[in-house]
Specification:
372 residues; alpha/beta; three-stranded antiparallel beta sheet; metal ion binding; Enolase-like_N; Mandelate_racemase_N_dom; magnesium; metal-binding
Length: 372
């Protein structure tokens, strides 16, 4: 089998309601921008994958063609090595690895997670917020999620003053004593043109101490820079709250360093952003060997979410992050390029069971939106 062509679609989807992401203070998002790639083969099978965020605004079709056309998509490991220069010249290569897995799964007639020895059983999910909101709004949000069967919620705590977010967590704890809470500081990476002062070690420790008092906290996510291995290790030693991170670290070697230096309790590679599916499975094995938790980041578009679902299903992970913050960030807005959004049922999410990634794309909408 040989890759014969690469198609690129630049998609800008108008969301039904605006969204104010915590990691971009003062920014109002009104559209979801995604770069979709389709790898065609001489076997009549195509694989798809997406880049979102800043990579979704870049045009690198010629690079993709240079590295992929003429290659056998089943040679995933060697192709990932060949794609490594993308880490120097342009966007990371991991979404292309996902498209290769999509082809391999379709060729075999099996979902990716099954090829990797996984199970299609529902995965318990935590509802993952994206905005910083006040007590009343968040209590209403949690009430809705609990009624839907979720047993955990992740809140945001991004900014110079975490006190309001910690008060939200306290009030939720009072109302829902058995609900697991996660807290995401989003200090692991920075967004261009957004002026937020990174937390110091003392800032991070102060928040961790507050979360210890709140209790039943699954983890504190990205309280320090993603490359501050020593600082994260010191923080981990001084708090009982598990420390999580790794969504934007690049490659398996970063996670080896996390483990070597004792930096994290919870490893969170994203299949699209950090490791690919194969690398994510290696990180899961490393986590298991060292008694750590494996909980991939999934805040992507619909295809990125599905890619991480296959990784979760192939590794027996305990939690699936389910991005949900209506009215702006809904399954329909997140998964707009899919025929049907991926929905949680009774607080759990099942991986698609069709061949490859197992989802159908809304090609009519894709053609309509394409600005390439």
């Amino acid at each position: 089998m040989e890759i014969t062509d690469v198609n690129q679609y630049h998609l800008q989807y108008d969301m039904a309601d605006s969204f104010q992401p915590a990691w971009k203070p003062g920014f109002e998002q009104t559209e979801h921008e995604v770069l979709l790639f389709e790898l065609e083969t001489d076997a009549g099978i195509s694989g798809v994958a997406t880049a979102s965020g800043f990579a979704g605004r870049m045009d690198y079709l010629e690079l993709a063609e240079m590295f992929l056309v003429g290659e056998d998509p089943r040679e995933i490991e060697s192709l990932v090595e060949k794609l490594d220069p993308l880490n120097l010249w342009g966007p990371r290569p991991w979404h292309f690895e996902v498209a290769l897995w999509d082809i391999v799964g379709k060729d075999a007639g099996k979902p990716i997670y099954e090829l990797l020895g996984g199970s299609g059983d529902p995965i318990p999910a935590y509802a993952s917020t994206g905005e910083r909101q006040g007590v009343d709004e968040r209590l209403a949000y949690v009430e809705d999620r609990v009624s839907e069967g979720f047993e955990a919620v992740k809140l945001r705590c991004h900014g110079d003053d975490p006190a309001p977010d910690l008060e939200v967590a306290r009030r939720i704890r009072e109302a829902y004593p058995d609900l697991t809470l996660m807290m995401d500081a989003n200090m692991g990476w920075s967004v261009p043109m957004v002026d937020v002062e990174p937390w110091s070690f003392d800032d991070a420790l102060s928040v961790a101490r507050e979360l210890e008092e709140i209790g039943n906290v699954g983890w504190l996510e990205e309280p320090l820079d993603r490359r501050n291995y020593e600082g994260l290790a010191r923080l981990r030693e001084k708090t009982d709250v598990p420390i999580a991170g790794g969504e934007f670290n690049n490659g398996v070697h970063h996670f080896r360093e996390f483990i070597k230096q004792g930096s994290l309790d919870v490893l969170q590679p994203d299949a699209v952003l950090a490791t690919g599916i194969s690398g994510g499975k290696k990180v899961a094995a490393m986590a298991d060997t060292h008694g750590l938790e494996f909980a991939p980041h999934t805040w992507n578009d619909g295809l990125g979410f599905v890619a991480n679902l296959h990784l979760l299903a192939a590794t027996g992970a305990r939690w699936c992050e389910y991005p949900l913050d209506p009215p702006g960030w809904t399954p329909e807005s997140r998964d707009f390029l899919l025929e049907k959004p991926v929905v949680a049922e009774d607080g759990a999410v099942s991986p698609p069971d069709g061949p490859g990634l197992g989802v159908d794309l809304d090609w009519d909408l894709i053609e309509e939106l394409d600005a390439s």
